[in-house]
Each structure stands twice: as structure tokens, then as C-alpha cells.
Amino acid sequence: MKKLLATAALAxxxxxxxxxxxxxxxxxxWVYVGPIGDFGWTYQHHQGLEAVKKEFGxxxxxxxxxxxxxxxxxxAIERLARDGCNVIYTxxxxxxxxxxxxxxxxxxxxxEHATGYKTADxxxxxxxxxxxGRYVIGQMAAKMSKTGVAGYIxxxxxxxxxxxxxxxxxxxxxxNPDFKVKIVWVNTWFDPGKEADxxxxxxxxxxxxxxxxxxxxAPLQIAQEQGKLGFGQASDMIQFAPKAQMTAIVDxxxxxxxxxxxxxxxxxxxxxxxWSGMAEGEVALAPFTNVPEDVxxxxxxxxxxxxxxxxxxxxxxxxxxxxxxxxxAGKGLADGDILGMNWYVKGIDDQLPx
Amino acid sequence: xRIVLExxxxxxxxxxxxxxxxxxALTVIAGGIIFALRGFNPFSxxxxxxxxxLTAWWSIEALIVKATPLVLIGVGLAVCYLANxxxxxxxxxxxxGAILGGMIPVLFPTFxxxxxxxxxxxxxxxxxxxxxxxxxxxxxxxxANEILTSLMLVYVAQLLLDxxxxxxxxxxxxxxxxxSITFEGWQLLPNITGSIHLGALxxxxxxxxxxxxxxxxxxxxxxxxxxxAPRAGRFAGFSREKMVVFCFLLSGGLAGLAGCxxxxxxxxxxxxxxxxxxxxxxIIVAFLGRxxxxxxxxxxxxxxxxxxxxxxxxxxLGISDKIAKVFQGILLFFILACDTLILYRIRFEASARSSxxxxxE
Lengths: 354, 361
Prior knowledge:
- The complex is a heterodimer.
- Chain A is of the alpha/beta class.
- Chain A folds into 2 domains: 25-128, Rossmann fold; 130-252 and 282-339, Rossmann fold.
- Chain A contains 11 helices and 14 strands.
- Chain A has helices at residues 2-22, 41-56, 74-82, 96-105, 130-144, 159-175, 192-204, 218-225, 254-266, 293-308, 335-339, and strands spanning 26-31, 60-65, 87-90, 110-114, 123-128, 149-154, 180-185, 209-213, 229-234, 245-251, 273-276, 283-285, 318-319, 325-326.
- In chain A, strand 6, helix 6 and strand 7 form a beta-alpha-beta unit.
- The model of chain A is unreliable at 7-22 (pLDDT under 50).
- Chain B is mainly α.
- Chain B has a domain at 67-304.
- In chain B, strands 1-4 form a two-stranded antiparallel ribbon. Chain B has a two-stranded antiparallel ribbon with strand order 2-3.
- Chains A and B meet through helix 1, strand 2 and helix 3 of A and helix 3 and helix 12 of B.
């Protein structure tokens, strides 16, 4: 039995070596937490993969695994590493520990983990400043809302999401200091049924603007059904709600992936922590629709100010929910404070789940 | 016309053994047709699915690691189902075991000795038993349907874990992410070889132990009588109530142990999601193994193969991961269909009475 296994292992090894020498192309691989068809988070990462293919043509080979459960990701990542991937992108926070574990076993393979904070010699991280886009849509919501209340569907109380809520609220308050946000936590990134239910509840409670930090198109579709407005998340969702979407915060991972794959090809890749935003084009806004000209103009100007660095969404002093103030006057919060944000700004009518 | 299921006069032993293999063959054929319809060569797809994962030692290791929780939970459920006790909530018992077992490293992170691991495993099993005890008591005291209560308690346990790792048990250095500290040293199961951890040994021991109990002891006889001839069991003085409690404690304890093993090996910490549905997949495993503890060991390996093959097919051929789930569904369907057709025969009969009962279109 042992001999048989050894032979099998040798054969597999031989096949592995053969396929490794057969192609000189750089192999870039992706691990997705959801289905590509979510038209949100995973879809946008897959667009990044497509962009890499288009950019490098024959010089790059790609592979991906979708719907990988966070409790059981190590094997999928290891398989990609064994299949000769030169660089592996793990695109969910929950993949942090498994990515580090596999990276230890394969020191020659590069790993990049999206939205995490732990790194190693061959593990870098990358993330986007989504809150920059959320500040802009906050302003738009405050301008467009008749009731002065937005309904906000959120996934998990992690810093990325909390800072998004805060940036939205600060943007809204800059237009209408009395603006209100109603929040529903759905504890999932992708569950169209649950998201739709949450949207119905929020709209029936007086909200007339739909904001979401979950990945399906359901909330926006509900808003359209009820003649209300809203914002797309992660990708441009205009085809699903042509009468409701005012704009969408689009995660554009293509520039990062192209840059990173290029670095792997050239042998210049180094572990780093990349955090790009609107200036780099990683966070973009879909075309403004269903809004009057002056609102579109204001939003475009705000976006431009953020891009050029004139406006920081978290400019101090910011009053927290408990009344205390953070940040120096006129200065933006430090990156670390945003990346670990676990408090609400004043005016948000919700308790942060502790 | 109506369709009648009629009990066959005598049961064929040979067919009873052949049934899972027939089901498997039918699944492979149905799978091949699905692949062909999706535009893939069915033979190469089936090769990648069922054979390729067995051609490298590392993926055999992965297979055993994946099968470990399925077998541990599956053997307990097999005993339950034999006794006609329907525990559908193993996933919740698994979660409860992970919570109670994980409590030790989370609350006492510096407590490092072999005793740490032992306590974790004992607490894990106790957690699963306690969670399983609830539907048992509800059934005995209030005749509440255990299928519903055990299933609903799954969500209670998962939300409890969710709350714990978002709040009190969150890693203080974890940037507010819903994860506990990562376990290390004696808070993790040692590996036997490669990536196979001690849990695999527990799974095999559980299978062998239950096979012995079922085949050689009075308790095993009592369980089988409870399932196949409950009236005879009552005349023999076997208590139905005690049997329900026994089955839930046994299957709950094993599921809890499996949950604790997962967090002390593959996962390595507490987080909102600690199992991709092992507690539910183990139901398929129990039936695929013909409710026989030894059979369950092989069934667990086979189902693990379907997970790993699904990943392989996705990476090498670009086949959607949904196919793996479709496969598991087809497999369970064929097993149950084959079993039914061995015990019953289908008869079509034209009946005037039944046509009267048909509602008007």
C-alpha cells in the first residue's frame, strides 16, 4: 500500500514538474468567498481577473475558486499553490489565517490577502478606501431625501463597514445636520432574500433612500419597486434598477491586480500593505442618474476634492456618539484610526453591536 | 391512476448491500450526463472529480481531514436513526461543542499543558451533549417533534457563537473583526502525520466502538429493537424515553467533539463560521453508510471526496461549485430511492375512488 502511494505521489510530482516547465507564463489565481454571479464584491474581483487576462494575454494564466467557505479555505488555497500559481489573491477577510498558513508552506508563492491586516514575507494585503465613496453618497442622500431618513443595510460590524456608515453620515450631515440613518444588520454579505426583507422594513419605517453594504442587487430593486431611490454597492447596478440607482460605489480592483501581477512577472513583488482610494481609481463612482443637475454637480465636486486630497472624509474634530471628540481640527484621521474604527459618529440612531 | 407503494414479501440481503453501490453508479451516470450537457467531456470531468484527488498524498491527507468531522457526526446520527430518533440538529450540537471547548483557550489563553487539550475535548463533547439534551427533553416531556426542535436549535447555537465572537470573545488585537484569538500549542490537536490530526483517530475509534456496541451488546440490541419493533421493545421493558435521551446525548456528544476538533485543528480559532455544514452533510453520510458505523467511515470518505473533487473540477476545468452540491443531492436521492425500491415495489392501479377525490381542475 505504502509503495503504491509512493508511486502515485511520484507520478503526481512528475506531472506537476512537467506542467510547471511546460509553460513560462505567470499564473495568477483567485479565491472568492461568494459566487461570481453576485454582481457585487466577488463579481468585481472577477472583473479584475478578466482585466489581468486582457492586459497580459498569453503571458499570464489564471485560475479561480468561487464560493469558498471561510471555515474551510485552507485546502482550496493550498491546491492553487500546488497547481503552480505564482501569485494567489484571497479576496475575503475570513481567509486571513488560512492564507498565512499556506504561505508558510509555500515560501516561493506570493500571496495577497484583501482587507486583512496580518502580513508575512510572501503575504501582502490590499484594500480600498470605500469610505471615500460613502462620504459622497451621504451628501447625495441628504440632498435627495424628502423624509430626511436613509435606510442602511449592513453586513458585519467590522471597521470597513463601520467607517463606511460614519463617512456616509458625516457626508449627509455636511448637507443636512438633522439627517437620520436607520440601520439593519443582516449578518451576511450576500443573501438576496434577507437583504430584500431588510429593505422593505426600512422603507416602511420612513426611510426613502436605500444604502447598502451587502453585495446583492435586491435592496436597490426593492427601492425601485416602491418608487424610492438608492445606491449600488461594489459594482454598477444600474441595469437592475435603472429608475432607482443614483450612483454606485464601484470597487475597481483592475489597476491593483495589473500592477501586482506585473511586479510578480518582473520579480519585483514585495510584501506590502496597499490601501488605495479614489485618487488611484480603485474606488470609483458610477455615472450619476435619477438626480437633478445640481446634485450631480455637487457630488462630482466632492469626489474631485477627495481625489485631489483637498477633502478628507474624516476631518477632525469629529463628535462620537458618546459625545467625546476625536481628531485634530482641520486634519484627517490617521489611517490606523480608520482601519480599526469601532465607534459611531453622533446622530446615528443605533447601538454598534459589541 | 394512482401509484401505490407495496411492501415486498421478502427482502433481498444482497440488494440491501448492493443498494449504495447502485446509487453511487447512478449518481456517476447522472453526473456524467450533467457534465456532458454543460459541454465538458464527462470522462475527464469524472476523472478529475473522483480519481485525481486520490493521486497525490497531500490531497489524500486533505480527504481524511475533511472526512473526520463527517464520520464523527455520521456514526452518532446512524445510531439515532436506527433507533427511530430523528436528530437533524447535529450542526447546532457541533457549534455548541465548539463554543464550550473554545471557551478554555479564549478565557485562559496562557493555560498551556496537555490538560488544556483534554479539557477542551471533554468540554466540547459536553457542550454537544447539553445542546442535544434539549430536544430530547422537549420530546419526552411535551412530545415536541425532535426534527423541528433540533433543527431550530442549530440557528440558536450559531447566533450565540456569532454574538460571542463579535462581542465578549473577540480578539482585542483583532481590529474589531469577529474572530477570537488564534489558538496555539496545546490548544491545538497534534498531527499524526502530515496534516492529518488526532481527530481522525477519534473518528475511527468512534466508528469501531459503535460497531462493537451495535453488534455485540445488549444496548445495541435495544437500539435496533427500538427502531424496528418499538412495541416489542416496550414489552421487553425498554424505555422509549431513555432511548431518546441516550441517542441525543450520544450523537450530540460526538457532534460537539467534532466541533471542538475543528476549531482545534483546521480553523484554529473561534469565528462566526466554523463548519461548512458538516452537521447536515453527515445526515447523507449516515444513510450512505447504511446506518452502519463501519459503513459510515467509508461513506464519510466518499462524501469528503465529492467536496475535494468539486474543488478540483472547479480549478482545473472551471466547473461551477454548485455542481458539487448537485452531486451530493443526487447521491442522497438515489440512495433513498434505491432503499425504498428494495423494501417496496411500485404498483400502478386505476381506481375510481381516487379519481373522485381529485379536486376539480
